[in-house]
Amino acid sequence: MPISSTNKNGQSLLHMEGDMTIYTAADMKNELMTHMAQPCEREIDLSEVSEMDSAGLQILILAKREAEKHGTSLRLTGHSRAVLDVLDMCNLASYFGDPVVLSCNENKGQ
Question: Which CATH number applies to 3-107?
């Protein structure tokens, strides 16, 4: 799972894509923790996450705890359907505190 990073006005913008599963968790954790090393405000775009399981959720929880440890904020944005399904199943959307918005295209499939 590649994680791309850009900086904008002192905020780190991370973009995750691909699978966030048990099969990618170790590599994903190492790469994400490299990005989390510097204390700054962060936003993680999850719009391109194609599959997510509890291992992927644990990585997001770890990122949230790391941000809190540094006294910075972490926002999750662009929740893909795979991310929304896991957050809903585990009832953890409120834990992250980010607005979860369904696009019109996502809503039509239900």
Answer: 3.30.750.24
